[in-house]
Amino acid sequence: MNDKLKRRNRMVMVSLFGIVAGMVGLAYASVPLYNLFCQVTGFGGTTQRAEAGAERVVDRKVTVRFNADVNNKLPWAFRPEQKEVALKLGETGLAAYRAENRSDKPTVGTATYNVTPDKAGKYFNKIECFCFTEQVLQPGQSVDMPVAFFVDPAMAEDPAMEDVTTITLSYTFFRALDADAVLAQQANQQGSSDKAAPSATATN
Known about the structure:
- By secondary structure, the protein is an alpha+beta fold.
- It has two domains: 1-41; 48-180, Ctag/Cox11 (Ctag/Cox11 (Pfam 04442), Sandwich), CATH 2.60.370.10.
- It contains two helices and ten strands; from the N terminus they run αββββββββββα.
- A five-stranded mixed β-sheet has the order 1-7-9-5-3, with no helix packed on it. It has a five-stranded mixed β-sheet with strand order 4-2-10-6-8.
- The radius of gyration is 25 Å and the shape is flat.
């Protein structure tokens, strides 16, 4: 009887450890899985990424508006250079945002983004965007940040999108969590470039 009870207890313990291990693994996997889900479905207004423009253009037009925000922990000014653009579905659009570091120190920003209405996310494709990488601005530096995009012509075939005539593309810049590491890497790269540069030699 005691042996049976011990075996049962061991089985219970093994099962509990398995459940705990599975929960830990799920917690680590949940973020990338959620991000993948958003990218595939456009959930929450998550936009898509494309390597090239659309293969076709249809006559239906949509107006794309631009919005910009900055978290108060990042000492930047950030604004769109244009209020809106109108383009046909499948037509590549070009826009620009302007960012300025208003502090006296180098800072690193990273942008989050989405579109509204949320259901337009799966049709909004970005070909080129400053949001794909972290941005480093030196003290007082101002830069133009381009965005190349298109709205998938397949949107014209979706009955749920018949009421969508305007899409708003929004960005919010935050201070990068790994800002110190990014700045240190940039300093090291600059130092290596300076050492590799040929030194001038004096001639008589």
